[in-house]
Amino acid sequence: MAQPGGPLPPTGLSPRDPDNDGLEHLPHFRLPLALREVYAIHGGLDGAGGHNIDPPHRIHRHLSWIDKKDTYLLDRFHARNLGLLPDQFVAFAPDSFGNTYVFNLDCLDERHDPQVADWDHETWEVSKGVPFWPWFADFAPRSLLGLNEEHVASIADK
């Protein structure tokens, strides 16, 4: 239970059927195993820290609006991201400020899941990817539970 004035607990959606991933709108995209494991418990999470983990039907190719025919936008993206292509990223965890966590489809972890990177809407930069579970261990306390660094450190010390 949340304390008065403290962060609200995350809201979880109903678990998902692992055989029906709801990704018909993203052909050729396999839902990462780690995210399937989260969806087996929660079909998505709305967090107190401004971030969400979207349900499958809201996962999308976040950067698909960068039209490959618009050389200005494509050149800007290439310059900021060392030649990466916008369509190799699939968004699944947006915040309320315009940034989002994305799966980098060209950077896989040891389970062959795409790694998680952060898309910054102001700089147009995509961060270096990390495997899902280490990312989640950092993301969940701050972004879903709304805990600050001091809270996270005090929990880790116990």
TrEMBL record:
Residues 1-12 have a biased composition (Pro residues). Gene3D superfamilies: SMI1/KNR4-like. Residues 28-139 form the Knr4/Smi1-like domain. It holds the Pfam family SMI1_KNR4. It comes from the Bacteria. Residues 1-22 are annotated as: Disordered. This is Knr4/Smi1-like domain-containing protein. It comes from Ktedonospora formicarum.
